[in-house]
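To the wet lab folks,

You asked to see what we're planning to order before we commit. Fair enough. Below is the target structure as tokens, and below that is the sequence we designed to fit it. If anything looks off to you, flag it before the synthesis order goes out.
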């Protein structure tokens, strides 16, 4: 059997055009050619993230920068908003970095709400807050605009936001929202291969980082800023990724940001409709469903249809598509379908046809 098309929530399918760009012959990372390449994409990255700050490129998956944000910015105590596998893990990572950390845990399937954060930040104990905008394990999107508005009451608290599975698919206005660190790995809605993280820091985050003694070198935000000012990265980056990113940014701006955001929303609605048609319910609380993936309830919550997920996956795979069988403690009692990256109504219809066919055989 040939390639099985990825409809798992990352890595996602990578286009031929992107792969060709990735395979551009190598250049030196201190060469003028590299500086020209980074300088060319910098304004596009700034437009994508609605920021005047320099956008950085880290050769690491998202966790590199997620851990770095803790090491660069937490001196007193971090409040970790937890609503699924990745956001729960961030608390664990903060403690492994030797930091004081406190969980703000809500049940999986629920979003994080501004008032919950307000109650904790009001204690005055915290100098940092972590939030996962789109919790990929549960398919829940937390109301980041509402939270950002509340966070403005606490200007000294560093606001660290993971947009790993929402960046490029949802409007995230970095400067306006008052976020201090915003990051995403490239293997999700960017539809690039895994191995690079795009991120941006506020002037306040850079000032705070400069005061932190044990922030290390490889992920030192101050080094990223100094180098980005010269259109470079602190160490040798995955240059193939930078070529691929340049190609993808061409695609993104050719489509238009608003059209890209609308496309993701529409495709997620189509997947929700497919689930409803087959009697399934959704795992996320109503009104907080992700627009990049759909987490379908398969017994994790009362109500709705329950099927043999491994069998469904197998039947769909035989038709050339890979869907996800659930993540962490809701593996098997949910399943997930991604629509992020380059998917269109036509490509999603092909997937639904394969899913329909599989459902008939269950
Ligand atoms: C929301 C979110 N944050 C963080 C991560 C971790 O990313 P990585 O494994 O690429 O470091 C993931 C991975 O799926 C994710 O979905």
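Sequence we intend to order:
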């Amino acid at each position: 059997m040939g390639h099985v098309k990825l409809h798992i929530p990352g890595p996602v399918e990578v286009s031929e055009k992107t792969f060709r760009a990735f395979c551009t012959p190598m250049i030196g990372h201190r060469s003028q050619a590299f500086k020209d390449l980074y300088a060319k994409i910098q304004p596009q990255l700034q437009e994508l993230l609605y920021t005047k700050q320099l956008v950085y490129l880290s050769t690491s998956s998202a966790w590199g920068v997620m851990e770095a944000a803790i090491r660069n910015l937490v001196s007193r105590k971090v409040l970790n908003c937890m609503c699924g596998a990745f956001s729960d893990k961030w608390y664990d990572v903060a403690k492994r970095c030797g930091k004081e950390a406190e969980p703000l845990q809500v049940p999986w399937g629920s979003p994080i709400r501004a008032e919950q954060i307000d109650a904790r930040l009001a204690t005055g104990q915290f100098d940092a807050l972590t939030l996962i905008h789109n919790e990929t394990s549960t398919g829940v999107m937390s109301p980041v605009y509402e939270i950002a508005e509340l966070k403005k009451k606490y200007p000294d608290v560093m606001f660290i936001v993971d947009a790993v599975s929402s960046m490029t698919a949802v409007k995230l206005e970095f400067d306006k929202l008052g976020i201090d660190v915003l990051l995403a790995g490239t293997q999700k809605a960017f539809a690039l291969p895994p191995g690079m993280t795009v991120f941006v820091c506020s002037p306040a985050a850079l000032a705070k980082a400069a005061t932190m003694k044990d922030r290390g070198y490889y992920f030192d935000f101050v080094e990223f800023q100094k180098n980005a000012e010269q259109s470079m990265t602190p160490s040798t980056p995955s240059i193939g990724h930078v070529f691929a990113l340049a190609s993808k940014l061409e695609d993104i701006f050719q489509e238009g940001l608003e059209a890209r955001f609308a496309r993701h929303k529409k495709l997620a609605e189509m997947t929700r409709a497919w689930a409803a048609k087959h009697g399934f319910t959704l795992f996320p609380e109503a009104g907080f469903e992700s627009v990049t993936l759909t987490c379908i309830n398969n017994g994790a919550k009362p109500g709705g249809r329950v099927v043999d997920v491994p069998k469904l996956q197998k039947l769909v795979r035989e038709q050339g598509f890979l869907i996800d069988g659930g993540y962490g403690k809701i593996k098997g009692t949910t399943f997930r379908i991604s629509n992020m990256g380059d998917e269109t109504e036509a490509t999603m219809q092909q997937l639904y046809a394969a899913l329909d066919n599989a459902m008939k055989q269950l």
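Structural context that might help your review: The pocket of pyridoxal-5'-phosphate is lined by residues 10, 61-63, 86, 132, 136, 162, 164-165, 185 (CB under 6 Å). The chain has two domains: 5-12+257-360, 16-253.

Thanks,
Computational group
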